Amino acid sequence: QTIYLKDYKPFGWIVKDVSLRFVLHPTETRVFSTITFSPNPDPAAERRFFLHGEHLKLKSAKIDGNPVSVDITPEGLTCDVPGCDFTWEAEVEIAPAENTALEGLYMSNGMYCTQCEAEGFRKITYYPDRPDVMSTFTVRIEGDEPVKLSNGNPAGQGDGWAEWHDPWPKPAYLFALVAGDLVNHPDRFTTKSGKDVELNIWVRPGDEGKCAFGMDALKASMKWDEDVYGREYDLDIFNIVAVDDFNMGAMENKGLNIFNSSCVLASPETSTDANFERIEAIIAHEYFHNWTGNRITCRDWFQLCLKEGLTVYRDSQFTSDLRSAPVKRISDVIDLRGRQFPEDQGPLSHPVRPESFQEINNFYTATVYEKGAEVIGMLNRLVGDDAYAKALDLYFDRHDGDAATIEDWLKVFEDTTGRDLTQFKRWYSQSGTPRLKVAEDWADGTYTLTFTQDTPPTPGQPDKAPQVIPIAVGLLNPNGDEVLPTTVLEMTEATQSFTFDGLASRPVASILREFSAPVVLERDQSPQERAFLLAHDTDPFCRWDASRELARASILAMIRDGAAPDTAWLDGLERVVFDDTLDPSFRELMLAVPTQSELAQNLFEMGETPDPDAIHRAVETLRQAMAERWADRLPRLAKDTWVTASYAPNADQSGKRALGAAVLSLTTRLDGGAAAQAQYDAADNMTLQLSALGNLIRAGKGDLAVKSFYNQWKEDRLVMDKWFGLQVGAAEPDQAVEVARALTRHPDFDWKNPNRFRAVFGALAMHHAGFHRADGAGYALLADWLITLDDKNPQTTARMCSAFQTWKRYDAGRQAHARAALKRIMAKPGLSRDTSEMVSRILEG
Ligand code: ARG
Ligand code: ZN
């Protein structure tokens, strides 16, 4: 059954207040609800009284104290209701211990927890489970668990019970409950208006030592949102809970954020620098949702990008401010090109604001999140920082307490700037990645850039209209001096020219600075000019991208013509990588060659069929050439990356370690693993230990270290996830499937735990040459396990199906194997709605 945006109607009743009482039990939890309804005067509202409810055992239902007879379907119930205000009371029974889908109320390691976004509350009790129905909640929890938490402020507790009251009206998807044997890492924060807020991170006993970093990140986020967006926290308490079994990263429940433990727990011994940075960003992301998501929520799930795009944009600004803005921007572009571009250009392509869906959980995508954030970045760039700030103030002012839409969002920008955003809005409705071609002309001192935009057809959208594209450009003169600083050109037509006068000589243009729009730039540019930009561009993103283009061109020439690596490019690269006046993390990004899946994506964008084995060989040859070319200089560079101060996961130290890891991987190609072994033996933090282990495995010298690592860390779930993932990731292409298969037989392979499942199969899906093995063994193994997991956990299964989204790009043999695997999943009796929607889109789109 498909749901359409155009069918939206408000609910026929207003929920004035909700009171819930939970009597906890693993298999017989009772949920008592008292809900006051009032007829919605809106003439557009639907008149049928329907409460969502799934897998609930209804014990009793009353209206105004009198038993009422109800019609129950698998989706919910209806009954006759009075035409005036009334009180609904129900008692239902649920079995959290049997809930393996991890949606609604479930158990993880003996602890009760919830995940309600998007539509999980209906698995807890009967309710109008839609984001535009907002209400205040009072929650009473009864049970022996020492810690019992819900949203809002504490409202009393006693022997075996605790009560919570959330004064802020919220939709049911922000409801949360946690109960268990938990310990807290406490702290406090004083808001800018002087309000004292109690902060806690709640974890299982034993994990107390992994909370300090998350707590600092939380306080930094609270301060940043006050300073930059003027947003203050609005309750007396803010709780974060770490949960081991969780389908996604984290969830912004009002006053009670619930996190996948991998996204909050951190210590230097067990977490890498990348883990720390990710944790900091996710804590910020969930905290920022308090205003962009909770105080202003979404009218319906088609508007998901209203909160997610904006909140991703805000957390990226936060990371840019705390760390290095150019490094964050380049990393985000790598991620966008690596995850969002394949989605946008394949069978799963959908607009940032989709217009229909079967299962909303399938739309928590890179397009909604990351392209959604890019769209806001473009808006910011087009209107400027001052107007952006004014528009946001108006947004918070005008829509506080609302369930809002993209129309509301764009209107605040129109009202503050006087701009007409009708055409800009296409970024929300049109799917696919625009291709931007550029031609240059130089005559009589005038330089002209002519751009042409074109978006290829995507499923359901054969014809595309021109979009508003902010193109940031700068001009350099032949000496490398900037003659035009960054200027944003606003392209609105299919083809459009921009001229620059008064130039003494033909300039070199730096185009799409800071990656000012999520497009594929197609530029016929000479290697000399690219090398010039690599050497001289003042925009770090374009400088990095010039090198990327040269790397890409070199690798493609190696694949097609058996060419040798491009030494002119390597010369230019060398000057950056060995320049110790530059930020080490920027140098590390420069040194990294495009990933194999990115190269496959590039070939696809150029209309060619990628050969995973050929791509793998070319990248290996290139990396070997780099190692040999710089053999004499690597030891010195490695030394420059040593950190003598005690470990801190800050930008400075992690940049050095990242560059050090890149150097180690080149060195390992020359010394057979000696340096990696030395680093492994001496490592006192996970960043160094893990990069050493990866290199030992790649050098074929990993057997002992793999065992010792296991013995050292077998009690630590999050470190063991790394151990599982790395063995697959570092395997040879013809071994990755066998390694993954062997790991599924390991006693610690707990496939019902999403983190562990993803550790193995996420790593396999990301192993480009390993997963896309010509004989289809990678596809078959993943399909087997998706079929197994679907019974237990549809959400995680469906999400992992996207590993197949590029299948039609490969040769006929691979396609046949992929199709067979997909059909086998599709044919499974009782396949979930989640997975069946994904597989059918992938097959048909
Ligand atoms: N709102 C959460 C976040 O972005 C993610 C929830 C994901 N939910 C889902 N059903 N996939 O922080
Ligand atoms: Zn979010």
Automatic annotation (TrEMBL):
| Top EC class for this record | hydrolase
Keyword field contains Metal-binding? yes
**Which cofactors is this protein said to need?**
Zn(2+)
- Stated EC number for the protein is 3.4.11.2
Give start and end of each Peptidase M1 alanyl aminopeptidase C-terminal domain: 528-844
Q: Which PANTHER family match?
A: PUROMYCIN-SENSITIVE AMINOPEPTIDASE
User: What's this protein's name?
Assistant: Aminopeptidase N
Which species is the source of this protein?
Mesobacterium hydrothermale
Which gene name does the record give? pepN
